[in-house]
Amino acid sequence: MSAGTRNPLIRWWPLSLIAVLAGAFLIERTLFIANSQPYEARREMMDTWVSITVYDTDERHAESAIAAAFSRMEDVVGIASVHDPNAEASRLNVAGLAMSPSRELFDILLASKRISALSGGVFDVTIAPLLALWEYDPDAQTQFWELAMADQQAAISEAMSVVGADRISLSEDPEPTIALAPGTQITLGGIAKGYIVDQGILALQAEGIAHALIDAGGDIAVIGGKPGGGKWEIALLNPEDEAEAVARFALDSGAIATSGNYRRFFDPEEQVGHIMDPRTGYSAGESSSATVIAPTCMEADALATAVFVLGPAAGIELVNALTEVEAMVLGFEDPQSIARSQHLGDYELRKKDGV
User: Which string of b and e fits 274-299 if b means at least 16 CB within 10 Å?
Assistant: First the structure.
């Protein structure tokens, strides 16, 4: 062989090496998928059951990651609760001022104000005084929902004078500060649970989990789809018959949340639902349920409440004006009357063979 002639094996060996490496990657990937198993744990938290499902090849690692996620979520519950007197949000309601607050509480309230502005004020974390009116009072001879309309209106007008997202002041200069206007109190039930789920997802990712689902009483976030390319399938139950699914959705990442007045009521007759319309001071009555898909569970949680209050027409109009957000709204008078956002079909699973 002359000095100017190259061995064809030398010319082709880099391509052969690439092929071998690619084959090894595919084999490793296939084995990983085959060996990856689902692991699940469930705990009671935030007045509901929270379940975490992860896929992993190692049971001990999966359990450790799930424990880390629950721990992170419980830490944030200890910040955002307005029922625990030791929680930061509860202390803010008492003092009206928080100097150097936690980043978590600051971010929740920052998002609350943003979504309040987006929704024209129908999402409002300062409705605590309105909710307090409707709460059952064991010492009262007459409950609020039993009062004459004129008496209700007078009390509602007084409560609404201290309601409004503009009554929350947030500042980061010279140091982070949260201030509530006199008489204003917050309740974070419409947004904190979604934020807490997001924090659980971040904790799982920090532990190296690539495929996971967290479900906190219907506030659901997912990452990575399922090993092998499948998506997470989530069913929306019929408010009138929870054995029946109104719709099924498939997500590989993102979040979905549903708000509805069909499970929690203030009164024994189940006429006053727990989701209030801050514009009127009365229970929202345009929707039976509202389901929102969004990039984060915090957004899905808060927007589901806003869309529920707005009702099918205005709620879908709001969602269609947003990017990466879709929604389904069931009407109040007729839950079978369903309003869908423009691109909801990208996530909705169509029935096959009647199933």
Answer: bbbbbeebbbbbbbbbbbbbbebbbb
Q: How many CB atoms lie within 10 A of CB 251?
A: 19
d(C-alpha 90, C-alpha 82), whole Å? 4
Per-residue pLDDT of the chain (355 residues; tens, 9 = 90+): 444 444 443 444 443 433 444 444 344 444 445 589 999 999 999 989 999 999 999 999 999 999 999 999 999 999 999 999 999 999 999 999 999 999 999 999 999 999 999 999 999 999 999 999 998 888 888 999 899 999 999 999 999 999 999 999 999 988 999 999 999 999 999 999 999 999 999 999 999 999 999 999 999 999 999 998 899 999 987 766 666 788 999 999 999 999 986 656 665 655 666 789 999 999 988 888 999 999 999 999 999 999 999 999 999 999 999 999 999 999 887 666 799 999 999 999 975 434 4
Backbone angles phi, psi at 184, to 5 degrees: -85, 140
DSSP string, 142-164: S-GGGS-HHHHHHHHHHHHTT--
* Separation of first and last alpha carbons in the chain: 71
Give domain 231-355's CATH number out of 1.20.1250.20, 3.40.50.970, 3.20.20.190, 3.10.520.10: 3.10.520.10
Q: Which residues of 56-69 are buried (b: 16+ CB within 10 A; e: fewer)?
A: beeeeebeebbebb
Q: Rounded to an integer, what distance in angstroms lies between the CA atom of residue 24 and that of residue 30? A: 10
The domain segmentation of the chain, as residue ranges, is 88-180, 231-355
pTM: 0.87
Hey, what CATH topology would domain 88-180 get? T-fold (1.10.3980)
